Amino acid sequence: SRTGNYPAKRFFDELMRKYFGEYQFVKQLTLPEVNIFEMTQVYVDQFQNRQVDFFIPQAGLIFEIDGKQHEASVDDKGRDEFTQTLGLKTIRFTTEEIATENQSFIGKMSSAVDHMRMIDRLEQEGILSPPNGLTLRDYRLAYNEGVDIGSPSIRLTAAIRFQLLVLEL
Hints:
Blueprint lengths: L6 H13 L11 E5 H5 L10 E6 L4 E6 L7 H12 L3 E6 H6 L2 H22 L11 H10 L6 H17 L1
Parallel strand pairs: 3-4
Antiparallel strand pairs: 1-2, 2-3
């Protein structure tokens, strides 16, 4: 904060939209600062109270923005290997890659888009079935064309969410 440089904010606010092309709608699905247990539902002592920078559950993608403190971190490597065993893909960017948008950065962003394309294809072929029943194609359609708020299922979902919100208060 001393320098006014916020690479994770820039990544989220600008670069996802700029590089994700047809998948730029996933920015709306991206969760920041997700606890590893909440993401994986698997407790691992060494990852207690640890978080990832960004997580897109619908695509199984984790994004990490690494400053100098992450260089050669054994803990980061172990965490990436653990999440990979659960089918999650981690893509790590250095703050320098974000600042310069160099070839390494572009290649990693391309890898993220390729991964989303693969998930999208597997969902359309019926090989993958999202837990909530909504595919990437469904999200893209809602993002591009809007949602029919008159639909009974949408109205019911909204009513249930409102009731849950009231219960929490």
